[in-house]
Amino acid sequence: MNIAKVDLNLLVYLDVLLREGSVTKAANQLGITQPAMSNGLKRLRDLFSDPILVRTSEGMTPTSRALELQPIIRDVLRKLESAVQPTLAFEPEHSSRTFRIMTSDYAESTLIIELIGKLSTLAPNITLDLITPSDVTFHDVEHGRVDMAINQFDELPLSFHQKLLWNDSFSCVLSKTHPLVNKFDLDSYLSAQHIWVSKTGYGVGVGIDPSEVQKLGWVDAELIKLGRQRNIRVFTRHYYAALQLAKSQHLIATLPTKAALTITDDPNVIITPPPFDIPPIALKMAWSALLHHDPGHIWLRRLISELADTYSVKKTC
User: Fold this and answer.
1) Per-residue pLDDT tens for 256-292?
2) Residue 75: per-residue pLDDT
3) Are residues 290 and 275 in the same domain?
């Protein structure tokens, strides 16, 4: 086949069709009519002598040939885009770009607050769209619908770029009037009532079963190793709520130290190390290869990394 006779727009059509799995969605994405997209699919089928997408009970499903072509076409288009688009310097002070960041409540209450303050000075017209982990999937990040994810991850797809922002220890937060303030050992800790704060990940949550202790995360996993279990009275997905409950009720919140230190100036709370060892957690930033060379994205990643370094030093106890 003479490559000169191939309409390169068809490669764009194929990339979007396989990403969206729908003629209608692909047409909307490209800003063309559905008949034009259907005609494009017909031409793709002729070009590759393959159905490309077939209708099944689960909707339009790519053929094995289409799945083989997908990474090849994506790579070709990425290189073409890089070749034909001029590399312009990103000017944050003049940018009105919106960055969508999937972030856990932990990162939002610590690092992201610092980021928003910095942007107000450096890039006052940039908008942040902060999305919770239950709002998106790895698929959304991989395809660039979300600019980046900032969270604690058990594992990440191999295709992602990632950077460690900081490691954090754990601390206990309790009211200054808590009866255990003057005797805070493991036995007294376990005799108290506790607040559990979500270890947020991807996907919609389905609630917590207190009996499934092994699924509760870092703190309870370490207690299990000791053959012990704490008495959890409140389950929350929000660090601010956990801190306020610990401050106003006789409940103990055990959470990452940098989150605890956001109320370090409050005279009504005590922040103290837990009476047992809990391994540190890692806060990471992850993003798609599709955005890796984008000048604005590079600028934002660099700014976040610098803020994380500064915050890590400032909020160390």
Assistant:
1) 999 999 998 899 999 999 999 999 999 999 999 989 9
2) 87
3) no
- Contacts of 232 by beta carbon, 8 Å cutoff, 6+ apart: 193, 194, 195, 196, 210, 216
Give the whole-angstrom CA distance, residue 103 versus residue 148: 8
Q: How far apart are CA 187 and CA 312, in angstroms?
A: 32
Query: What does the alpha-carbon distance between residue 232 and residue 210 come to, in Å, rounded to a whole number?
Result: 8
Tokens of 144: 């660039």
* Whole-angstrom distance, CA of residue 71 vs CA of residue 75: 6
Which whole-number Å values give the CA distances from 254 to 56, 65, 154, 178, 246, in the listed order?
Answer: 49, 51, 20, 15, 10
Domain interval for residue 50: 3-84
Whole-angstrom distance, CA of residue 29 vs CA of residue 105: 31
Whether 112 has a pLDDT exceeding 60, the answer reads yes
Cα 37 to chain center, whole Å?
33
Global confidence as pTM: 0.70
Q: Is residue 151 part of a domain?
A: yes
Mean pLDDT on 159-177: 94
Number of Cβ within a 10 Å radius of residue 174:
26
Summarised one tens digit per residue, pLDDT across range 143-158 is: 888 999 999 888 888 8
| 39 lies in the same domain as 138 | no
Instruction: Spell out the alpha helix ranges (H) of 56-193.
Output: 64-84, 105-107, 113-122, 138-142, 186-191
The SS3 of residue 211 is coil
Packed helices 9-20 and 23-30: angle between N→C axes, nearest 10 degrees: 130
Rounded Cα gap, residues 270 and 172, in angstroms: 8
Same domain for 30 and 62: yes
